[in-house]
Amino acid sequence: MLELKNVSGGYGKRTVISDLSAIFPKGELTSVIGPNGCGKSTLLMLCAGLISCTSGAVLVGGKDILAIPRNDAAKQISYLEQMKNPGSISVRTLVSHGRFPYLGYPRRYTDLDRAKVEEAMSMAGVADISDRMMNELSGGQQQRVRIAMVLAQDTDVILLDEPLTYLDVRYKLEVMELIAKLRSLGKTVVAVMHDLELAFAYSDKIAVMENGRLTAFDSPENIALGDTLKSAFGVNAEYCEYAGRYFFKRAE
Asked: Which phi and psi (to 5°) does residue 42 adopt?
């Protein structure tokens, strides 16, 4: 479980997140949504301990993330940043990077490490391309490989920053299906999302942010009934029984 207690923080003297409290339960996918610049990515970086809170605390397993040695923290919480050019590296090598917190120096992979890498690639559906180079793959394949790297890290908490960026509809669905599977492993999954329809279709909880604050944290159904979407995005949610999902239109 991941818990935020009255967390504030940002960059230097600039505060981005203000007095934010939330509990992200084990075995659930929470999508963090909100307008551009509201602090969604900063929130994930605070959760990962990549930037320090100016007040409050981020707790993982009941312990302050900043009080845990960095290598030990990386065994409990993983953070996947926004997708960027992967360069010339093989799929297997990149996925193996997920085992770094468990390795000493020089890095020597054990049988357990290699088994975790194979298991992660299999679950992410990239085992058959393990010897290919990342820069030869489609965007959807690259993102599944990156999620395999997170799986190989084998943490209880997984943070994903805009995992659907640059993907077309087919690959968005593939990646969302994979992210949804993480819940069956008992993982706490928190993902920054821009695609509202997919966020509402797959998430257990929706966290709505505006101006560095959490304005709503509830089930997709309850968020759809409230006014927070209108305030944050200027849209209303409508549920389509036939499609079995929410659609969004401009609020009047």
From this structure: -60, -40
What is the per-residue pLDDT across 51-91, written as a single tens digit (0 to 9) for each?
A: 999 999 999 988 999 899 999 999 999 999 988 877 889 99
Task: Answer yes or no: do 67 and 161 share one domain.
Answer: yes
Q: Which helix (DSSP H) or strand (DSSP E) does residue 85 occupy?
A: none
pLDDT tens-digit readout, 94-134: 999 999 999 977 788 999 999 999 999 999 999 999 999 99
Query: What CATH number does the domain containing 182 carry?
Result: 3.40.50.300
Query: How many domains is the chain built from?
Result: 2
* Cα gap 200→206, rounded to integer Å: 7
| Confidence category of residue 179, pLDDT binned at 50, 70, 90 | very high
Same domain, 7 and 65: yes
In the DSSP assignment, the letter for residue 115 is H
Q: What are phi and psi of 59, to 5 degrees?
A: -110, 130
Enclosing domain of residue 104: 83-154
